[in-house]
Structure formats: structure tokens, C-alpha cells
Write a structure and sequence with these properties.
Elements (H helix, E strand, L loop, with lengths): L4 E7 L4 E8 L6 H11 L8 E4 L9 H16 L3 E6 L9 H14 L7 E3 L4 H13 L3 E4 L3 H8 L16 H12 L9 E4 L14 E5 L13 E3 L1 H12 L3 E5 L6 H11 L6 E5 L3 E2 L6 H10 L13 H7 L3 H11 L7 E2 L1 H15 L1 E3 L1 E2 L2 E6 L7 E7 L9 E7 L1 E5 L19 E4 L4 E9 L5 E9 L16 E2 L2 E2 L4 E8 L28 E9 L11 E4 L3 E5 L10 E6 L4 H8 L1
Parallel strand pairs: 3-4, 4-5, 10-11, 12-13, 14-27, 16-22, 20-23, 25-29
Antiparallel strand pairs: 1-2, 6-7, 7-8, 8-9, 15-26, 16-19, 17-18, 19-24, 20-21, 21-22, 25-26, 27-28, 28-29
The protein binds adenosine-5'-triphosphate and magnesium ion.
Length: about 575
């Protein structure tokens, strides 16, 4: 990954972080370089066709987003097409629920397969024909070795394999057996169809790989029509060929399968065979990126489901509130290369902040309320102060906020005996209430346990915007809500689900047998939050910046009428928050 330098500066006036330097060269993409060369040579008649080929055996994660952006993005870049194809050749693990979620996720990311939604299972009849052609050519045979024998015959990396005694069957006999396999004459596992390549090949994938197996399993699309199913390595290149895919882009673990990909297309596809290109899969710090692991979290109840806002799934990120634009930007910045690397989760956060800062309207909400009574403010009075919805976007307009004698601020924003650099409220100290007045703390009230339960203040009536003392300097500015009109809300704050993982680059699998250590503090629920009155009517999926707290999104599942639940997407990297942790 190219070096990344970025730095933030806090602007108190606008309540937001401002970026003052960043260097992210447009990330390199070696696949685009290859395609440019191909186009120069007019390969495939100048056509570019890619595909995104998920197996519907789980929900998509952000690693898949890299592949989606690469495949669909490449088609867009070169005026080509990108197909969505479900690689649904293994009915034992696949389900229609996953098909639906994958379609929703790709759409949400902003890509369109138009009328090119395909299923490998639709090609079962043609794949069967391809297998017959191999048999006719003497390039495939029906093998009756048991699974164990097959393993023993395969050899090892240092030792060549041995040829199966069934390898020399005649084409006629193979054809007859293969047809009977299809017709259900033999039990599951009794025999398989294998390619006849080279048992001495240094590449284990070429040692007569299995092409078809018998498996009596109901398929979510073809039902019980088939009792033999093709292996991925057989179905994939031929599905690519059937669709006219030109550039079949996949992750590095398929590099060793490429010779088999080419063997199949060379032997079966006469014109413009597709070609496979591998790139490094995305790994991110502090997260795991494997459907198998993610399924464990779901099944064990560690998370509430595939769309739990802590999950790195696209449905989790969506529910948490990450904008799809931010995820696309992230995928663009990480680039496409062959060397495996682990991307810092901070880069995704950075992309999210960039996007949200530009677009999210500002609101005020107090997570853990502390009552402030302004003794010199008339008890019955409510006035309205003007608040801009976005500091840099006049089109976003403004709103009016009620202000009265009793307000709430954050408990964290008051300290009785603060350290030196505490610029929030303290006895005798002054702060500005954002969009309103300067207040001075005159007294405090404690509860039976000695905790501050109420703070008393005086306000300066001339300190409001437009007033004589409006320009008066005070060090701290706090967010607040008026007590009488406040909306009661719930917020959920998140931290990473795992304590470690991926730091060693082995995030996808965490090494054999290694269990990820779960972060016991990955979810904090604040049920007593108070927000601006209009927040009561927040719609599911609506995003805001809550001043000084971060970016939030109204939960799409749990937000009910007049009971919004907000997920914190991401914090602001607030120095105040940092100070609070340090003291
Ligand atoms: P997992 O290992 O998480 O189960 P998978 O590779 O089995 O994922 P598929 O449904 O087969 O999932 O993947 C569809 C496409 O997405 C494949 O082309 C695969 O290479 C790509 N892909 C999967 N994970 C990543 C990742 N972490 N980074 C980039 N591409 C990925
Ligand atoms: Mg896979």
C-alpha cells in the first residue's frame, strides 16, 4: 500500500475536525494495467467482461466489497460489463437467504448487474455436456477409489502421485458410467469423475482433480433434478466461458488453480477463452474476514446476527451507518496488488469520517446527562436559538432549538476538581453553550453517594450570537439540550469485536485452532440519552453528527416511532475525549 499521511486539526468554531494535510496517491491497480495492454492488442475484440462470483453460503463482508468494487469498477472504467453470478454448485452449504442478502448488498454498494444475474446452477446441463466432451477426448474418467485411497494415491508436495487403476477405462465405458452416475444408479461417494491430467505434476491441482461427485442433496434452485454436482474448479472456468467473461479476477489462493483453469478452457473453449488474474485479498486489523468465522459468531450468539453493527459484514456496516460511498472510497484507496498486506482499520474510519463530515447534518445529544440549573434565567421562559445544520453548507439551512432555565450537559463535561488543562465546566469556571450563552458555574449539589447530581450556573444575557459579549473568549464550548423539550433516546456505542487478530496478517483464519479473543466492551448501551426535540422523529437509516460525540445512524431495526435508537458509526477523534481518558 502506498504511504498515507494524514493529520487532523480541531476547529472549535465549526465543531469539527479539519484535515490539513493528506497524501494518498491514487492507488495502483495492476489489473487495469493488464487490461489496457489487452485493449491495445484488441484481445477479445476489445471487449471487457468481468464477474463477481459469490458462493451463497454466508453474508458478504468488507473483503468481498474489494472484489465487488474491483470487478464492477473495472467494467465501468473500460466500458465493459460485470455479471453477478452465484457460484451455487454445492447445495450442502447454500441457501436462498444468502442469495437475497448478497443481491441487496451489491445494490447497496451502488453497483448494477442490469439483466446479468446468473447462477452456475443454470449451467448444470451445459457443464454436464462439457464433462462428456472431456470423456470423449479421453481427458476424463470415472474413478472408484475411496476418498481415503484417492488421498493416498495423490502423493505429496515432495512425492509424485500414483495413477488410479480406473484411469485406463475406455471412453465408452466412462461415458456409460457417468450417465448412470447422473441417473442415480450409484450411492453417494461410490465414484467420481476425474480429469486425466498428470499424477506426477508438481502442482497437486493437476493430479487428476475431481470434476463431479455424487451427492443427493436438494438444491435451492434445481431441487432434486441432479444427484451429481460439479466441483468449483470445474464449474468456475466454464461458467466464465459460457458468459463470455474476458478477465476472471479472483484472490491469490486460486493462483495454484490457474493451470487447471487453463487446462479446462484450452481443451473445451475454442474462441477467446477467459483468463484468470489473481490479486491479494483484503485483510483488516482487529477483524476477521472469513464467512466461517463470522458464522461462528452468529451461531454462538456472540453477536445478534449477520447484521450486528459490530460485524465486518456489509449488512453490519450498513446497519451501523457506514455510507456505501465511504466503503467504495476505501476500496479505491487500498489499491489492487498481488502482495498480501493487512490494512489498518483506521483507514476505513478515515474514509467514513471524510464522507460523513461532508454530508451529515449536525445535532446535539447528551449521552450521560447532568442537570444544569441557570439560576438567573426565568423559570417559565423558553426562547429559541438558531443553529446551523452544517457549518460549511449553507444549503443545509438551520433549525431552532429551545433554551430554558434547566438544561443538560454531559456528566464528563463537569469536574469538581479538574486537572490543569480541563477547559470544560468547573466550579467558578466559564464555558460557552454551543449556539447559546456563556455560563459560569456558581454551585453544585451532590447525591447521597457524593456524586454531583446538579450544577448551578449564571448566564451572561449579552453573550448570545449578535449580543454585545458574543465575541468574549472562553476556552470551552459544550453541547447541551433543554430539559423540558428534550427527546429521550437510546444510543449504542461500539468498539471492535476482537481484542487482537489480523495483526499478524493471519486475520482470515487466525492460525490453526487459535480462538479470537473477544472484546468484552464491544457494545455500550446508553439508555438515558437526551437529544434535541426533533430527534424523536428520526427515521431509520438517518445519519447525523452529534456534536463532539461522533457520527450516528438511526438503527434500521430497532428504531420505532418516537423511540429512536442510534448506532455510533464512528467517533470524532476528539481531544476532549482523549483528555478525559488521560485524567
Ligand atoms: P470467505 O473466505 O470469507 O468464506 P470466499 O472467498 O469463500 O470468502 P466467495 O463467495 O467464494 O467467498 O467469494 C466471492 C469473491 O469474493 C471471490 O472472487 C473471492 O475471491 C472474493 N473475496 C472473498 N474474500 C475476499 C477478501 N477478503 N478480499 C478480496 N476479495 C475477496
Ligand atoms: Mg470461497
Amino acid at each position: 500500500m502506498p504511504p498515507l499521511f494524514f493529520c487532523y486539526n480541531l476547529s472549535l468554531k465549526s465543531d469539527r475536525w479539519e484535515l490539513f494535510s493528506i497524501e494518498t496517491p491514487r492507488a495502483a491497480n495492476f489489473i487495469h494495467a493488464i487490461i489496457r495492454e489487452d485493449l491495445k492488442e484488441n484481445k477479445n475484440g476489445g471487449r471487457v467482461c468481468t464477474r463477481f462470483p459469490p458462493e451463497p453460503n454466508g453474508y458478504l463482508h468488507i473483503g468481498h466489497a474489494k472484489s465487488i468494487c474491483l470487478n464492477f469498477g473495472t467494467a465501468l472504467e473500460f466500458g465493459g460489463k460485470c455479471n453477478l453470478r452465484f457460484d451455487d454448485t454445492n447445495p450442502s452449504k447454500e441457501d436462498i437467504e444468502y442469495v437475497d442478502s448478497i443481491r441487496a448488498d451489491v445494490r447497496w454498494l451502488g453497483f448494477d448487474w442490469e439483466d446479468r444475474l446468473f447462477y452456475a446452477s443454470d449451467y448444470f446441463p451445459r457443464l454436464y455436456e462439457f464433462a462428456c466432451r472431456l470423456i470423449e477426448k479421453g481427458l476424463a474418467y470415472v474413478c472408484e477409489l475411496t476418498a481415503e485411497e484417492t488421498r493416498a494415491y495423490r502423493g505429496t508436495l515432495s512425492q509424485p502421485g500414483r495413477e488410479s487403476p480406473y484411469r485406463t477405462r475406455s471412453a465408452g465405458e466412462n461415458m456409460d458410467l457417468f450417465r448412470r452416475m447422473r441417473e442415480g444408479e450409484f450411492p453417494d461417494g461410490a465414484m467420481v469423475l476425474r480429469a486425466r491430467i498428470d499424477m506426477a505434476s508438481p502442482n497437486l491441482n493437476l493430479r487428476d482433480p475431481v470434476l463431479y461427485r455424487i451427492m443427493r442433496r436438494r438444491h435451492h434452485r434445481t431441487g432434486d433434478v441432479w444427484c451429481i454436482y460439479p466441483m468449483y474448479d470445474f464449474a468456475h472456468p466454464l461458467s466464465d466461458a459460457i458468459e463470455g467473461v474476458t478477465h476472471s479476477i479472483c484472490t491469490m489462493e486460486f493462483e495454484d488453480h490457474r493451470p487447471l483453469y487453463n487446462w479446462l478452457t484450452d481443451n473445451l473453449i475454442a474462441e477467446n477463452p477467459p483468463r484468470q488474474y489473481e490479486f491479494a485479498r483484503l485483510e483488516i486489523t482487529r477483524t476477521v474476514m472469513s464467512k466461517r468465522r463470522l458464522r461462528q459468531f452468529v451461531d454462538s450468539g456472540v453477536v445478534s446476527g449477520w447484521d450486528d453493527p459490530r460485524m465486518p459484514t456489509l449488512s453490519g456496516l450498513r446497519r451501523r451507518g457506514y455510507p456505501p460511498e465511504a466503503i467504495r472510497d476505501f476500496c479505491e484507496r487500498i489499491g489492487v496488488a498481488k502482495a498480501n498486506s493487512v490494512v489498518d482499520a483506521a483507514l476505513l474510519d478515515y474514509c467514513a469520517r471524510e464522507d460523513l463530515n461532508r454530508r451529515a447534518e449536525r445535532r446535539m445529544l447528551v449521552l450521560r446527562p447532568l442537570k444544569v440549573v441557570i439560576d438567573n434565567y426565568p423559570a417559565e421562559r423558553t426562547e429559541y436559538v438558531e443553529a446551523k445544520n452544517h457549518p460549511d453548507d449553507p444549503v443545509a439551512g438551520s433549525r431552532r432549538l429551545p433554551f430554558g432555565r434547566e438544561i443538560y450537559i454531559e456528566q464528563d463535561d463537569f469536574m469538581e476538581n479538574p486537572p490543569k488543562k480541563f477547559f470544560r465546566l468547573r466550579p467558578g469556571g466559564e464555558v460557552r453553550l454551543k449556539h447559546a450563552y456563556i455560563i459560569t458555574c456558581t454551585d453544585l449539589v451532590k447525591d447521597a453517594e457524593g456524586r454531583v447530581s446538579e450544577v448551578h450556573c449564571q448566564y451572561d444575557p449579552l453573550s448570545k450570537s449578535g449580543g454585545e459579549n458574543a465575541g468574549r473568549k472562553v476556552r470551552g464550548t459544550l453541547h447541551w439540550v433543554a430539559a423540558r423539550e428534550a427527546a429521550r433516546l437510546e444510543t449504542r456505542l461500539y468498539d471492535s469485536l476482537l481484542l487482537d487478530a489480523a495483526e499478524d496478517g493471519g486475520g482470515a483464519e487466525l492460525g490453526d485452532g487459535a480462538e479470537p479473543r473477544l472484546n468484552p466492551d464491544s457494545l455500550t448501551v446508553c439508555r438515558e440519552c437526551l437529544g434535541e426535540p426533533a430527534l424523536a422523529a428520526a427515521r431509520p437509516g438517518e445519519r447525523f453528527q452529534f456534536l463532539r460525540l461522533g457520527y450516528f445512524c438511526a438503527d434500521s431495526k430497532d428504531t420505532a416511532f418516537e423511540h429512536p435508537v442510534f448506532n455510533r458509526i464512528i467517533g470524532l477523534r476528539d481531544t476532549w475525549a482523549k483528555l478525559a481518558r488521560e485524567t
